Amino acid sequence: MNLGANYLEDGRCEFLVWAPQADRMELKISGPPDQLLPMQRRERGYWRAVVEEVTPGTRYRYRIDGEKERPDPASYDQPEGVHGPSQIVDHRRFAWEDGKWHGMALSEMVIYEVHVGTFTPQGTFDAVIPRLKELHELGITAIEIMPVASFPGERGWGYDGTYPFAVQNSYGGPEGLKRLIQACHREGMAVVLDVVYNHLGPEGNYLWDYGPYFTDRYRTPWGEAVNFDGAYSDEVRRYFTQNALHWFKNYHVDALRLDAVHAIYDFSAKPFLQELAEQVHEFSLGNSRNCLLIAESALNNARIIRPPEIGGYGLDAQWSDDFHHALHTLLTGEDLEYYIDYGHTGDLVKAYREGFVYDGRYSHYQRRRFGASSADRPGHQFVVSSQNHDQVGNRMLGDRLITLAGFEGAKVAAAATILSPFVPLLFMGEEYAEEAPFPYFVHLGDPDLVAAVREGRREEFSSFHHTGEPPDPQSETTRESAVLNWEDRHEGRHRAMRDFYRELLRLRRAHSVFSRQEKENMEGFGLESQKLIWLRRWQGAREVLCLLNFSEKVAECAFPGRRGPWRKLLDSSEGQWYGPGSELPDRVEGKCRLKMAPRSCVYYDLE
Amino acid sequence: MNLGANYLEDGRCEFLVWAPQADRMELKISGPPDQLLPMQRRERGYWRAVVEEVTPGTRYRYRIDGEKERPDPASYDQPEGVHGPSQIVDHRRFAWEDGKWHGMALSEMVIYEVHVGTFTPQGTFDAVIPRLKELHELGITAIEIMPVASFPGERGWGYDGTYPFAVQNSYGGPEGLKRLIQACHREGMAVVLDVVYNHLGPEGNYLWDYGPYFTDRYRTPWGEAVNFDGAYSDEVRRYFTQNALHWFKNYHVDALRLDAVHAIYDFSAKPFLQELAEQVHEFSLGNSRNCLLIAESALNNARIIRPPEIGGYGLDAQWSDDFHHALHTLLTGEDLEYYIDYGHTGDLVKAYREGFVYDGRYSHYQRRRFGASSADRPGHQFVVSSQNHDQVGNRMLGDRLITLAGFEGAKVAAAATILSPFVPLLFMGEEYAEEAPFPYFVHLGDPDLVAAVREGRREEFSSFHHTGEPPDPQSETTRESAVLNWEDRHEGRHRAMRDFYRELLRLRRAHSVFSRQEKENMEGFGLESQKLIWLRRWQGAREVLCLLNFSEKVAECAFPGRRGPWRKLLDSSEGQWYGPGSELPDRVEGKCRLKMAPRSCVYYDLE
Known about the structure:
Two copies of one chain form a homodimer. By secondary structure, chain A is an alpha/beta fold. Chain A has three domains: about 5-95, Immunoglobulin-like (Sandwich), CATH 2.60.40; about 110-195 and about 240-260 and about 270-450 and about 475-505, Alpha-Beta Barrel (TIM Barrel), CATH 3.20.20.80; about 520-605, Golgi alpha-mannosidase II (Immunoglobulin-like, Sandwich). Chain A is built from 14 helices and 29 strands. In chain A, strand 11, helix 4 (about 175-185) and strand 12 (about 190-195) form a beta-alpha-beta unit. The longest helix of chain A has 19 residues, at about 235-250.
């Protein structure tokens, strides 16, 4: 039985809601005239009603114990926002044409993270569609959509959603999202959807009235933790596992990105994440479609991506923040907050070879030893990026890497990420050197909450040694500042950056050293004094030497490859990529000294 | 470097204490005259002082930031109680004579749980010693000592200790414990020590003044959780891992029983328990002594006892509450609180064959699916009992199983436990049918705490459908009521019970079906309508049929064994065990009907 309002085979609509502590539940269907229908109690705290004649688009609420009228926790649509009634959606009606689409393996993915509200001036799903073809031609194979579950107001990042089954109306609602996914699949692109299972937003969260969805046994940074291991947690888990399956079933998404799983507090013998993975993979097998789960995790614990046979939870992949931080600090020299733990060339080499940098090493930021080794996990289980909504947006001004590391630095970052043995993720716009910031913004209705968010942002950055004030998160202009300047992509250095990305993505596909994510076939070394890294990578008889110069000076070094001859594959400092020009030879045979431009990278292929 | 006050090779005494947030630390040595010595700051928040001439028995405190004078968190002795000064102990002085003792394998252990304060009228370690020989001759191979870390007052269970490295003075202090352990080893018996790492008691807990030992991110039933995974947790972990090693090194204990590990909240990638197991096993290897860790865990998660290679934490064994509850409910018919989840013959059969009964099954008590399978773990990794301090003492009146299930029932319980494929644990006195209760008692100094504990006990049992009041936990007579009536053991049914235990323990050692803890070589069945269980167990060519009748009626059934002939090994209803007499044949060949006395068990051996 599915939660929410679902049409049965015979056209009747079944309403199912979990309210284990209620004595009476009624379904109130909006009229005119309004109808109040009794619901029947089912086992384990569920309540059910079946309605004969009700059309999609009808609005409804539940009435709890004859008193509170509340939207459906599993509402598919909140057309009037988070405080309004729920609306019936008939998911069978959408004309899917992607029957031949069977999903995508992680190893094929190049992910492009999109915030629907700022990717285009319109800020809608439909407005994304015309841009897909170009992205695909560039080499992007998957779109990752930041959370769309209904959140308060007209704009926001989406992580404070309160209707995990619904789709933000200002983006275009359920139909809009389906059209976008349909278009992606038509284009041959996969869709990753960002979902938040660690908390629900504070505004418009009526789950408290229904049942013990939350627990006070643990604390999260965002309020009370979801009840994943206490009394009644089976049904709380079911709410979220059904949610995951809902996106795969009704929206044909290909993967879910699970937000901040480190805030899913769960000490049970069979953790929620493991149960979720089992159910999603069972669905995947049963439907001959690749359905994947990718976790954002700050635990540095590869247990979550190991198979259950060796004690893992069986998720498919996870983000590697260590990779980002190691790369970011080499490019920016930043050392505040968590960046204090990175900044050495050896960190990035370790990230390349093992995944996690912090594998039990002492973290000065956390003031404890942190993490455990992930060296046993294959490269395709890690999603890496040189920037993403978090790393950009959590800065006071939301500045992108290009603002911090410059054009040449951004090219090194792109190469380091795309030609890594991991799954690369691009943040929308980085491919053409977009400079619009991505600051934090909300659109809350509750003035107390608005004040709290403003104060929170101010406080956060008072400790970050910043001068100035963060942009007002509630202001419409803050969102507007984040809208991409998409037309720029054809011009000058923007165009050169796109060409560079295209070439990187082509190499990643075409060159066997890059096309397989085998981090084992690699050796590397960091020349700390020069901020220079070299990596030797191989696949069968093929071999590539990668040199990355992160310093702002010319780097001089002996060519680290043996044998030869070597042919230059890619050189970021060349004029064709809008670089300052290169002094590196096209071909190397025998001993040779290299002189690399500041912030540049070069790749040599063994002939 | 060791925490606490430790003599160096050259006879000087080194004081080491962790106080990461202090600006100044001083060592105050009690005189006359008192001496105040400065301490030097070391890395990671430690402070050190070395004193030239100071004798064992000298008392001291630390002075924090020139203000608070506090006992040592790693004090080895608190001769004036939890609020008094710490006292220097020279652990090198004890004349150990157990150089040939190398510990004991779990498979050899038959554990006898002792509460030092009530095992004898004197309530001391020394008073235990004269009883060891007799216990060993009965077949007991290991003594488990309830917590001895210094706790408030003169009496208590010991779970609210506040000096994990010290030894309760009213029991006889450090020397007393060493003498007891020496005597055990001389007798050929191992020692298991119960230690509490999940919280510290509320009275006499000065750790707050020293550093972030606790966290408010999680809640325990007993107050704030220990900080095992937050900032500074490396040193908090070190405090407890050093504590474990302290008992193995300075006291020659053979195993630690880790109290309630489910209240050790820890989401780190390398959990504290895994780190503890590594360090203890490293010590074990380095010293050619078997040093073991046995967890009390309510998680039903075999991960904690799996080896790290398959994702486990590597502890050696754990208690199986499921076994107890399944057995207890069959014998008593109780169904309140957590007993609601048990009571079927199939539960006990499952416990025998797999370890955990709750392996993901829905628990009505917990209102969620609970646990994961432990079927892959060998029998010697589970410690089972038909009663223990918790199961007896957590009852309002502290009544033992014999009070609830009667003499015949207690014999069935003994057989079920001792002839299980697990490590049996006996609660002191059960071997001679002791009837003294074991109620909860304390001896606190703080009147508010006394009132809170009294109220807590009253509240706890108001919900347990009890009539009457629990005994006053603070009263001396409550402790006195728990003192064993040791002299009874020679008389009548008490003596018969001892003889029965002796025979069970002999069978466990001598019969190859029982001497190996192979729960795989077993099939079983519960006849629910008759409350009868039969188990067939084998080892090589040997085979035993076990029949347990839990009902209060005569049970009639066909002899469930094939082939034959079968010879009766043991029959609890026989007169020699003070039973009502048996109608069961000594020998069975071919088909046969059995008529088992109420609450009885019989074991047949394939000839």
